[in-house]
Amino acid sequence: MNSLIPLLVAAPLAGAALLLLGGRALDRFGHWLATAFAALSFGFGLALFSDMLGRGAEHRAVTQHLFSWVPVNGFQADMTFRLDQLSMTFVLLISGVGTLIHLYSVGYMAHDERRRRFFAYLNLFLAAMLLLVVADNYLLLYFGWEGVGLASYLLIGFWQHKPSAATAAKKAFLVNRVGDMGLSIAIMLMFTEFGSFAFGPVLGSEGAVGAAHQASEGKLTAIGLMLLLAACGKSAQVPLQSWLGDAMEGPTPVSALIHAATMVTAGVYLITRSSAIFDLAPDAQTAVVVVGAVTLLFGAIVGCAKDDIKKALAGSTMSQIGYMVLAAGLGPIGYAFAIMHLVTHGFFKAGLFLGAGSVMHGMDDEVNMRHYGGLRKYMPVTFVTFGLGYLAIIGFPGLSGFFSKDKIIEAAFAKGGTEGWILGLCALVGAAVTAFYMTRVMVLTFFGEKRWQPDEDGNAPHPHESPKTMTIPMVLLAFGSVFAGGLFAFNDSFLKWLEPVTGHEEGNSPLAPLTVTLLTMACMLAGVALAYLMYGRSPVPVVPPVGSPLTRAARRDLLQDDFNHAVLVRPGSALTATLVFFDSRGLDGFVNGLAAAIGGLSGRLRRVQNGFVRSYALSMFGGTLVLVATTLLMRSV
Amino acid sequence: MTGQLAAAAVTTDLAAATGRLAAAAGATSTGEAVQFWVLAVIAVGGALGMLLMRKAVHSALCLAATMMALAVCYMAQGAVFLGVVQIVVYTGAIMMLFLFVVMLVGVTSEDSLKEQLKGQRFAAVLCGLGFGVLLVAGIANARLDHFTGLSEANAEGNVPGLARLIFTRYVWAFEVTGALLITAAIGAMVLTHREHVKPPKTQRELAAQRVKDNIQLPPLPAPGVYARHNAVDVPGLLPDGTIAEDSVMATLRERGQIRDVSQAMLRRMAELENSTADWLGRPSSERPEVAGPRKSLEPVPANGKAGAAGKDGATGEEGDE
Amino acid sequence: MNPVNYLYLSALLFTIGASGVLIRRNAIVLFMCVELMLNASNLALVTFSRMHGTLDGQIIAFFTMVVAAAEVVVGLAIIVSIFRTRHSASVDDSNLMKL
């Protein structure tokens, strides 16, 4: 049964290779082929899942050695796969949601002439992400990590004829490189410190203590911070968050895939997977928590101000991933909740994005929410599924977001002390803001008066429901949004499922769980009410008002690009300009000056070589004269 | 050549006698002194003449005079054999070779007086003067008051003495010199030799080639005008009075040594017309125009090489008249 | 008269020859000047021979003549071949070796 593990990765990889190499012959049915490969991977995942359930909790983690990748003495990198409860969760999420997004894309990309290539990239994305989560050592994980970066680059820039898309892809790639550098440095540190980078020897496995437990805290902190940097890059956490908003330039299914099932979850996976290191390095853990909390609020604030539906959802993603990172930074109290929120978020965020894509599909690719309004009558299925996703994300009681987010807020308070209070309050505020901006999105899009107008050519959009291939995934994901949380929370089943991998401990919360839940409810209701008062009661202006300075800043992504430009780009350009100046004037000037001096001297000396033999004879005669004179003088002295 | 040898033999005896005389004393005899001054004037004069004459032939002749003077100087100093060799080999053979080459290159080619290199002449004169002063100063400073004389060395005759040295002490140098001469001869041959890459064309092939190329199938026009000039440098005249370049050989054309007599002939014709008109009493307006003399020949484009119009060609108008 | 005068004559002739090499442009005349210089040195050698009372100086003068003959042969051959290709015996016309 374990031999199926490599096939998890191989199936979408084969699909990608087939589609890329197959040529135009596959244009007609290539998208179905890719979907089939994704579904096949999901099927393998289900089979392995049932197999895993059949074993006892202690025997669920399995490894499968495929071959020795880099067999060098002292440097052993193996193509070994590890499937434990954590990996299993991710595999099912990635392949399941990924398959649904494939299916959705069949409808969404129906008229794109490069559809085959798009599906090949989607399959490549799935393969890289699956490799990332089933790898048994950090190097293999890094392989998948880079594959994800590559696939995201290709997909974000899929409509490369648009300069904005090409720029966004480049930006995502470059920002990710910063994080990738962190991961590579972390792997190198691991190798120099522990002599290995496989999960077992480093992190410890059943009954065996990993090398990390013997290492000094300083080194572990360094490794932890580097891993955090990597996670920041991939998961769009502050300070490497700037690529996420621009990544909306990609086709909407790509956004759904990046935000729900792959890519951004990789950072959370990395932190959770490296829990052994973070648990032993409290400083690194604190850094993780701070990053999570800051990103949580950052993303939420940005989400409030955006009029572009996809960018509002992108801010939301950033915020929700911030929740996950916050939870993962809490240590064993929060790992399971981080993953749980990740899974539930995977459902409802995929649903929301697919819904947004459906709205855009019906509105002729209009993304400005101020031009929507009253769409619930035109696209009921989208409205219902999007609404369920909305309720899930704001944490409406009984839906999946409620269970996972509530647990995270509880865990934040359970951290204890001042730290716990600050984190808990951040999370509570985040919940309120989440409710606010999601309600805003909902109201602006589906309620109120219709606000779309004909464009210059007089073509008014005709909102309509999307085809079956698009609505079916949305419906399925809506089911997930509604029921997943309850399923996981029931009898703490998810907690117990993950406990062998991540461990779990109950914190000592200063507040009773019920109090936290009520507080969360109150915050959520406050956010919803405020949003309804602002956008639901009065007509929404089509042209956005100027707004407060905070709003203007939030519209510009809280000045993240300006910050990067001022702090990184300007000094970098200035440094480059200085170096270029020194190089061209200083070094080149010296060298060129030397060459010019020698050239000028040679030019003058060349006149001597006039080619006339008599002139040469004259110089010879002059030389003889000098010689004779010298000889005579020497003799006479 | 025989005369030269005889003259040399006579001088040999004379010089040997004076040499012996001089060797006995520290200084030379009065006769040799007189001879020296005469010869020195000739030699320096010849050398300066060689330096200053514009025509290479004149230079060569001046040099020959210098060499003859030097030959006598050699003999006067007891180097009888060298003196003879100087006359026979240098003046007789080498200078003749020079003259051959001068003729080959063009006897009339001469240096223009205009110096092309800036400051070359001034610097050369300056260097020459400086060098001369240095040499003279060097000789003057050297202690050269004692002259042994060659009476002992030439006791059994100059030639046997030289022969003894050449075939004993200097035999190696002598042999090497022989090799050098052979090498020089071969070198000269190689330098002036033109390799035939194709077998030379036969007369039939040449004729066929001419027909094919369609150039000048009939014989070239003959030189000479009105049967009055049969010199090869006088071109024949075409019916319109201009000269036929083809009638002069290519070498002369190349050197620009065509003697154009057409103008003179036309002038003679005009004079004849005039005298006839005078005799017949015609009015002067009906007399034909007398063509002005042509300045010189235009360069003849021969095989693309522009031959400069020689001065001889221009000045030789009055030629044989 | 002191035989040293022969040496002065030799120096004078040599200088005239050297100046001629520098002044004249006709390659043939140039060669003549070289010959004059060789002759001047021969005169000096003969005078030295007389001074020392040995014949070695004359021998060397003899060899000089031989070498001069060889030199003239080769040099004139060169002049002829240059004239053949360039139609000029002026050394100033053969200045293709410069830039």
UniProtKB/TrEMBL annotation, chain C:
<feature type="transmembrane region" description="Helical">
    <location>
        <begin position="28"/>
        <end position="48"/>
    </location>
</feature>
<feature type="transmembrane region" description="Helical">
    <location>
        <begin position="6"/>
        <end position="23"/>
    </location>
</feature>
<comment type="similarity">
    <text>Belongs to the complex I subunit 4L family.</text>
</comment>
<protein>
    <recommendedName>
        <fullName>NADH-quinone oxidoreductase subunit K</fullName>
        <ecNumber>7.1.1.-</ecNumber>
    </recommendedName>
</protein>
<dbReference type="GO" id="GO:0042773">
    <property type="term" value="P:ATP synthesis coupled electron transport"/>
</dbReference>
<dbReference type="GO" id="GO:0030964">
    <property type="term" value="C:NADH dehydrogenase complex"/>
</dbReference>
<dbReference type="GO" id="GO:0050136">
    <property type="term" value="F:NADH dehydrogenase (quinone) (non-electrogenic) activity"/>
</dbReference>
<dbReference type="GO" id="GO:0005886">
    <property type="term" value="C:plasma membrane"/>
</dbReference>
<dbReference type="Pfam" id="PF00420">
    <property type="entry name" value="Oxidored_q2"/>
</dbReference>
<comment type="subunit">
    <text>NDH-1 is composed of 14 different subunits. Subunits NuoA, H, J, K, L, M, N constitute the membrane sector of the complex.</text>
</comment>
<keyword id="KW-0520">NAD</keyword>
<dbReference type="InterPro" id="IPR039428">
    <property type="entry name" value="NUOK/Mnh_C1-like"/>
</dbReference>
<keyword id="KW-1003">Cell membrane</keyword>
<keyword id="KW-0874">Quinone</keyword>
<keyword id="KW-1133">Transmembrane helix</keyword>
<dbReference type="GO" id="GO:0048038">
    <property type="term" value="F:quinone binding"/>
</dbReference>
<keyword id="KW-0472">Membrane</keyword>
<keyword id="KW-0812">Transmembrane</keyword>
<comment type="function">
    <text>NDH-1 shuttles electrons from NADH, via FMN and iron-sulfur (Fe-S) centers, to quinones in the respiratory chain. The immediate electron acceptor for the enzyme in this species is believed to be a menaquinone. Couples the redox reaction to proton translocation (for every two electrons transferred, four hydrogen ions are translocated across the cytoplasmic membrane), and thus conserves the redox energy in a proton gradient.</text>
</comment>
<feature type="transmembrane region" description="Helical">
    <location>
        <begin position="60"/>
        <end position="83"/>
    </location>
</feature>
<keyword id="KW-0813">Transport</keyword>
<dbReference type="InterPro" id="IPR001133">
    <property type="entry name" value="NADH_UbQ_OxRdtase_chain4L/K"/>
</dbReference>
<keyword id="KW-1278">Translocase</keyword>
